[in-house]
Amino acid sequence: MFERVLTRNFGLPRSESIDTYLASGGYEALRKVLREYTPQQVIDIVTASGLRGRGGAGFPAGRKWAFIPKDPQIEKYVCVNTDEGEPGTFKDRELVEKDPHQVIEGVIIASYAVGAHRAFVYIRGEFFLGVKRWIKAIDDAYAKGFLGKNILGSGFSLDLSVHRGAGAYICGEETALIESLEGKRGQPRKKPPYPASVGLWGKPTLVHNVETLANVPHIINRGAEWYASIGTPKSTGPKIFCVSGHVKNRGIFELPLGVPLREIIYEHAGGMAFDKKLKAVIPGGASTPMLTPDQLDIPMAFETLEGAGTMLGTGAIIVMNEDTCMVDVARRLMRFFAHESCGHCTPCRTGTQRMLALLEDLEHGRGKAEDIACLEEIASKMRGLTFCPMGDAAANPILSSLKLFRDEYEYHVKYKRCAVAA
Asked: Which of 389, 336, 220, 285 lies closest to 54, judged by CA?
């Protein structure tokens, strides 16, 4: 049976408190790092573990840490991305609300490794409980000597504070997050240069999401070899999957990377609600291409999902049953992306609005045959041509639903109504 690591304290009384965290061995990894390891040794351990970012891109964490300049005269920063805004994704919020200290411990260790003495938590403004939990946990960490000057007598100092965002999907992108932290409108920057060399206020900055940092104390405590033994060779460690949609048990499930999608849906999530047939699955959040029932045995890992033409993304699995209208799904997702487009570049700003208008027409019986080709053309031309990855994210649901369920679009045009409601 798989041993839960990241969610092991969930369900304990006052799991968010520092006393609960300390009772379960919390902050021992920090003590170990400060006493036994140089910053470079910490980077080497994280690199050897194979930890990949859990925010969506899956970039190797150790390599990202190694990009930060080593010169101690250069000021550096660490930013914690708690701007979790994609439909169906809620794992980071759970981690912050139920066990924030393992994330804080990960932040301190990461800051020590890259030589940062100032770190920031960036959190979506609507996460009221998360903000309260972050502030309380940080205060308690200061009181116990895990933050502030000369942490545990090591000579290493770190200050950590919370910044509330205004609630924009694009601020989950690291450069838009940095712009927002600087007090500007949250819009992405051109890359390169990457934040590792030119980030917050022009200084080298390490940006990681909550789940990525929560893994770090466990890697230090139990070793890189232990961590790399979980999952697949290219996708190591545990992963928190959030499952929503037409299943019996919606929620989060911590499992090893590489677990088959079928096992997540039919064992951990209890199977299909009301025993309906499964029609489609979005495997990694609203921005990832859909899968069909004949693909349920695909291991949920970065490399295998890429091989299947989709992505692991955030690990947010959205399950849809046989009664789901895929044109309506595309329309609802496009409403989100059109609303959240930051407006910085024309393909995304006008492309999402035009696709939404076409989908509204199709869904409400006003669609024409040429609208389907127009929809496909706009989505195809957005991919890879927008300023940031949001253009691809908006195009993916359209292109994958057209590829897999084109007959439903054509039915809407021909009969002016939905095929599944007929």
From this structure: 285
